[in-house]
Amino acid sequence: MTPWTEIASVVALGIGANTENLPVGLAYGLRRRRIGLGRNLFIAAATTVATLVPLAIGEGLHGDMPAGASDLVAGLLLVGLGLFNMWSERRAFAGRVSAHTGAEGPMASIDLRETLSLAGALSINNIGLGFAGGVAGLGQGAVGLSVAAFSVVLLWLGEWLSRRIKSGLAGTSGWVQLDGNLLLVGVGVIMMLGV
């Protein structure tokens, strides 16, 4: 493998391992849920470990994993997370007895349970990529740096884009939260279908 081919492979693996992060960050931002730097770094660490462990295990175990199993599990987790969020937000909205003033408060940070669920959902998909990287002989340091960097950047970019979109949707926060949850469900379905 030439150095340029290896660099291109490492960058492609980093982006491929984190393609869900942009729409997930967007979905959370639209729901006015902030992931934040600390939680983002934790998720990046989890996705990086989930990529590097299979990369280190290598070629022998890659053949034993059923095709598409990691995408199916990660997709199911994202669909479940989106549906749970819809249910819990609708329940909280029904129990709320406060007048809408038109001004929204600050974004609420996700809690530890949600951070762990999100890290798990985004990490599971990386197992197959890690095996593929191991088979290709990619270096752990370069792959780790690529996966971690794209994880942080794409989650942040999704949240940043949601703030830009949200400014044009003032007064429709209930629908935007629902749409953000539907986006999570949609990403999960796309992952399960392997599109």
Structure description:
The protein has one domain (3-95, 104-193). Helices cover 77% and strands 2% of the residues. It is built from nine helices and two strands. It has helices at residues 3-16, 21-30, 36-57, 59-62, 69-95, 112-124, 126-136, 140-167, 173-193, and strands spanning 33-34, 108-109. It is globular, with a radius of gyration of 18 Å.
Question: Could you write a compact summary of the structure shown?
Answer:
By secondary structure, the chain is mainly alpha-helical. The chain has nine helices and two strands, in the order ααβαααβαααα. α1 crosses α8 and α2 packs antiparallel against α9.
What characteristics describe this protein?
195 residues, mainly alpha, 9 helices, globular
Strand coverage percent: under 5%
Mean pLDDT: 76
Helix content estimate:
over 70%
Q: Can you count the helices?
A: 9
User: How many structural domains in the coordinates?
Assistant: 1
Task: Give me the side-by-side strand order of the main sheet.
Answer: 1-2
Low-confidence spans: 96-103, 170-178
Cα-to-Cα separation, first versus last residue: 28 Å
Helix-and-strand structural type: mainly alpha
Overall geometry = globular
Q: How do the helices and strands follow one another from N- to C-terminus?
A: HHEHHHEHHHH
> What is the β-strand count?
2
Our Rg estimate from Cα atoms comes to 18 Å
**Quick one: biggest sheet?**
2 strands, parallel
